Amino acid sequence: MAMDKVEVGRPQRLTFGDLRREPGGQVLSMTVTVELESLTARREVVASYVSGFADLAGFFTDLGENWRGWIGTRTYESIEHDLLLEAVHTGSHVELHFTLQNLEASSSWSLRGKLTLDAGEELMRGSDDLRELLSHPPVDAS
Q1: In this predicted model, what pLDDT tens digit does every residue of 57-72 receive, in sequence order?
Q2: Pair 45, 33: CB distance under 8 Å
Q3: By the 8 A CB rule, do 79 and 46 touch?
């Protein structure tokens, strides 16, 4: 059975889900939800017209493949600048800083936070799950 969402982090977490696809299976958008203690925010994030969410999947794949560490900050930014992820390796953990925002003038808001992820299994699982979520169109149940 295909997964319908991916959660990264606990108890605070980012959730990627509610994918909207074109008839051919290409992902057009997904809902990104942030849960931090008593605060929850969600935003529909649009895929790149050229590459879909391949850059987001690649960002997490890169983190997973380099789980032993890297120097500096690895970043991902969605095409409409409403999701920004910045990953820093601290030795045994990865600090995943995020910004989720609505930039529409009439109702703009921005939420920034940080998740601390285990650099091994937790990071690899998130990377693998997100790649699977974004790369496989749902199986037709008919």
Answers
A1: 999 999 999 999 999 9
A2: no
A3: yes
